[in-house]
UniProtKB/TrEMBL annotation:
This is Neuroplastin. Residues 44-131 form the Ig-like domain. PROSITE patterns: IG_LIKE. It comes from the Eukaryota. InterPro entries: Ig-like_dom, Ig-like_dom_sf, Ig-like_fold. The keyword Ribonucleoprotein does not apply. The lineage of its organism: Eukaryota, Metazoa, Chordata, Craniata, Vertebrata. GO terms for cellular component: axon; plasma membrane. SUPFAM superfamilies: Immunoglobulin. GO terms for molecular function: cell-cell adhesion mediator activity. Residues 1-40 form the signal peptide. It is found in: Cell membrane. It comes from Tupaia chinensis (Chinese tree shrew). Residues 233-265 are annotated as: Disordered.
Amino acid sequence: MAHSWFSLPLGRVAGLLQPWALALSLLLVSGSLFPGPGAAQNKPRIVTSEEVIIRDGSGILVTLQCNLTSSFHSLKFSYWTKNGVELSATQKNASNMEYRINKPRAEESGEYHCVFHFVSAPKANATVEVKAAPDITGHKRSENKNEGQDAMMYCKSVGYPHPEWILHKKQNGVPMEIVNTSGRFFIINKENYTELNTLNLQITEDPGEYEWILAEIVILAVIIVVYEKRKRPDEVPNDDAPAGPMKTNSTNSHKDKNLRQRNTN
């Protein structure tokens, strides 16, 4: 038998409405936590060229490309960056971007980003990696120090991804990993740069040949030359040696002689 809402008691009407109210509240919560498919479609879509590998001596022109294929917001401007730094003269108002590396070398490798700024929306970017094998560009070939002083050696390279630096010291012609039991060695590795600091040089321990091993490909040897600060035996005065003849004033000696001769007359 059908009942009219108006003929049912008020408490029973509330009981019938509770499941519907609960379902409605869950729907509202789920809608706030899980945005609809349209939200993902509003994000800009960027198509990029593939990663590039620079090979020494190839001389082949490298061209990086980015294309903003879709966006629901007006483009304000765009530009290129390399390793987080904006490249000069690349800013323009264009959705199709291109960057040319005319002389591809290892130092041109890195992370390139095409960045798009919009009028009323967060910026968007995409990455194009340019890779190259590591190549050493600078290092300290030797370090001449006195015993007790501090020494510093460094090595720099170019190439991307950044290499893993490994430092060895040759002992009897065999490369051995440096063990910092004395606490005198400090190694700093930062991207394409590494540095070895040695405190309080010891004449019996520190001189020798050190090797930077770069990505298991390039090996560079450097040498620390330590000079003793103590003097050689022939430079140290001998307190037991007999003293030499004392210097006399010849003029005074002759004068005294004449005086003695006058007194005898």
